[in-house]
Write a structure and sequence with these properties.
15 helices, ten-stranded mixed beta sheet, UDP-N-acetylmuramoyl-L-alanine:D-glutamate ligase, globular, 449 residues, Rossmann fold
């Protein structure tokens, strides 16, 4: 079958393309301004792509397509989608295609939550792989141990990052309702995606839809002490539930890394990635792997070799004694967790935060009142406010002289590099490319030597 994928360069849809190709399908696709890293990964698989959504694709690259797989980036008015509708051609969403063609009969292990999905899913896939289960996976980032965001080996296990974004313009349910997991991790739940959901209660409803799909023989692993998740559970559950956290539940991990299961010592977590949020991510992965039959000791041994995820506290380089990190944090909770992890790794080394409030939620200003507090652990803050429709200077005013606002990238790079001193750590936080600021900073710092 020939699949033509609309929005193919997104992490999820690019993963769908790779999985379809591995399962013997002919795959082509298109996206607006075809872009790396996904375009590079897909080209290496021999997948041809068109730049843009010109309907002429229906008579060229996609002329013999049997099915059009539509990403949620595509909306009504998209010229190619309008032509597909006008011609009555068959189409399906990416999550629905995955459910119908790939996930049937597999043990699906899904990781959901506002924060930590990518890291936890990557840890889980690594544990299962080290245990010899060779899982298939589709993750919204690139685990360093694998080097790809998706793979299909024919394993009985499938690890998936289960996000709550809507499925497609014709299916406004969250993507994760299509996955039918046997093992479900609920990491946490906060308000986000203000462009899609009017309030937290509406997101909780989607999470309960997901909970309804877990079979009675399945297991739900829930972060302890999360009020929103407890409200979701209170609406009804039909599967065994275990909680993980720092005390008073089935799975616990101490600040020192001691893991306990049902009150009994289970081993010591040795993790290269700092921070309490990463210890909890690891604990959730251990619990999920245990449900799939991996002993806790084997899971702990695997995590000692976990090398992280690109763009999650990733050290991009060091120049003139200044370390530059890249992180995907774009929500106040994630920003605070990232900074706390770096402080835990080295409490005394100066820390500079460079932030782009790029997500739709941040652009709308929904979280602006929480932003200053989330950045409190940084010694200096540089915020790139171009395109932000609210008063960034006012939002960061509680930080006083520690905060600077920039509307020009060149100016930002010069300001950060100009004040950086040997020993400083700069952490760049954005859920987008941020104009390549990470590499630009490293080059500018190197020029000082």
């Amino acid at each position: 079958m020939h699949l033509h994928i609309l929005g193919i360069c997104g992490t999820f849809m690019g993963g769908i393309a790779a999985i379809a190709r591995a399962n013997g399908h002919a795959v082509t696709g298109c996206d607006a301004a075809v872009y790396p890293p996904m375009s590079t990964q897909l080209m290496s698989l021999g997948i041809a792509m068109a730049d843009g959504y010109d309907p002429a694709q229906l008579d060229t690259l996609a002329c013999d397509a049997d099915l059009f797989v539509v990403g949620n980036v595509v909306s009504r008015g998209n010229p190619l989608m309008e032509a597909i509708l006008d011609r009555g051609l068959p189409f399906r969403s990416g999550p629905q295609w995955l459910h119908d063609e790939i996930l049937g009969g597999k043990w699906v292990l899904a990781v959901a939550g506002t924060h930590g999905k990518t890291t936890t899913a990557s840890m889980l896939a690594h544990i299962l792989d080290t245990a010899g289960l060779a899982p298939d996976f589709l993750i919204g980032g690139i685990p360093v141990n694998f080097g790809v965001s998706a793979r299909s080996t024919g394993s009985r296990c499938f690890v998936i990052e289960a996000d709550e974004y809507d499925t497609a313009f014709f299916d406004k349910r969250s993507k994760f309702v299509h996955y039918m997991p046997r093992t479900l991790v609920l990491n946490n739940l906060e308000y986000d995606h203000a462009d899609i959901f009017p309030d937290l209660a509406s997101i909780e409803t989607q999470f309960h839809h997901l909970l309804r799909t877990v079979p009675s023989i399945g297991k739900v692993l829930v972060r302890a002490g999360d009020a929103a998740l407890e409200r979701v559970l209170a609406r009804g559950r039909w599967s065994a539930v275990e909680r993980f956290g720092s005390g008073g539940c089935e799975w616990t991990v101490s600040d020192g890394g001691e893991v306990r299961f049902n009150g009994e010592h289970a081993g010591l977590l040795r993790l290269a990635q700092p921070g309490q949020h990463n210890r909890l991510n690891a604990l959730a992965a251990l619990a999920a792997a245990h449900h799939a039959g991996v002993p806790v000791a084997a899971g702990l041994a695997a995590l000692a070799g976990f090398r992280g995820v690109r763009r999650r506290l990733e050290l991009r380089g060091e120049a003139d004694g200044v370390a530059v990190y890249d992180d995907f944090a774009h929500h106040p909770t994630a920003i605070a967790s990232t900074l706390a992890a770096l402080r835990e790794a080295d409490a005394d080394r100066p820390l500079v935060a460079v932030l782009e409030p790029r997500s739709n939620t941040m652009k709308l200003g929904t979280m602006k009142d929480d932003l200053a507090a989330s950045l409190a652990a940084a010694d200096r803050v540089h915020c790139y406010a171009a395109g932000v429709g609210w008063d960034a200077a006012g939002a960061l005013a509680p930080l006083g002289a520690r905060a600077s606002i920039h509307s020009d990238l060149d100016e930002l790079v010069e300001a950060v590099a100009g004040e950086a001193r040997p020993g400083d750590r700069i952490v760049v936080m954005s859920n987008g490319g941020f104009g390549g600021v990470q590499e630009r900073l490293l080059r500018r710092l190197a020029d000082r030597i």
